[in-house]
Amino acid sequence: MTIQRILVLGATGRIGTILRETWAPDMALWQGRREFTVPGGAVPLVFDPISQQQGLIQAGQGCSTVLCLAGAVPGRNDAMEDNIALARAAIRIGAGLGARVLLSSSAAVYGAQQGPLDETTPPRPVADYGQAKLEMEREGARLGIELGVPVTALRIGNIAGIDAILGNWRPGFALDRFPDGRTPRRSYIGPVTLSRVIQSLCRAKTLPDLLNLAAPEVIEMGALLDAAGLEWVPRPAPDHAIAEVSLATTRLEGFHPLPPEASLPETMVAEWRAQSR
Q1: Is 254 exposed, middle or buried (0-12, 13-18, 19+ CB in 10 A)?
Q2: Is there a domain that residue 219 lies in?
Q3: What is d(CA 23, CA 221) in angstroms, rounded to the nearest whole number?
Q4: 172 belongs to a structural domain
């Protein structure tokens, strides 16, 4: 598939904002439900993707990929089932454009399983958000087959700066510490690296149905805060705390090789600070 242009649904969200600030202005068409600014002076597409699909199909002519970042986020009183409705809308728009669709999913579909977790690991979500994303993936795969639209679900790990650690840090921040002295270990990716990886995926000729999206090695959350110079207070990890969530990235690196430094806390922090200026 030769990339022409990308139609980004949910451009005003957290990931959409990262991409708007890092991609070339003419690389994509950007959709949101309210007025927003696109670097370079491009005109945003202000449409509701569920009720105004035909308008987006007309506006998106020439796009070869629909990147659906729109979705419900925990803590915002969003209805988790909105993830499914938005995925359906994206795939129907993709069908109208003759484009493939990338759906923004989450590592939360794996739940508390021991890693490394690859795309063949049976999902076992433990929270409503993970369950909703899993249902979205399954409905997206079903509808994609029905409409003849190639669909790929991106199971994204923690993104430095919009995560629960850097993104929610405040004075007196407390962090679980396990008996071995370590803090929780998670698969992370820096915002600039994320931007580059998604760009590579949009340029790929074909993609699998599922892709983990993270840097290759897990990061200790305490090390991430230390690299950022942010003080934190250790607290004993409760019995139910998850020590590690590790995503396997072998499949992803077939499309975008990631150097070892992509997994360093210092890299994550530098990308976060560069992107948030």
Answers
A1: exposed
A2: no
A3: 28
A4: no
Q: Distance between CA 261 and CA 215 in Å, rounded?
A: 9
Omega of the bond leading into 116 within 30 degrees of 0 (cis): yes
Residue pointed to by tokens 């360093």: 264
Tell me if the pTM is above 0.90: yes
Question: What span, in angstroms and rounded, lies between the C-alpha atoms of 223 and 182?
Answer: 9
Does residue 269 belong to any structural domain of this protein? Answer: no
Q: pLDDT tens-digit profile of 156-215?
A: 999 999 999 999 999 999 999 999 999 999 999 999 999 999 999 999 999 999 999 999
Give the integer Cα–Cα distance in Å for 141 and 209.
8
CATH number for the domain spanning 139: value is 3.40.50.720
* Domain span including residue 72: 6-158+189-214+248-262
CB 221 within 8 A of CB 243: no
Q: How many domains is the chain partitioned into structurally?
A: 1
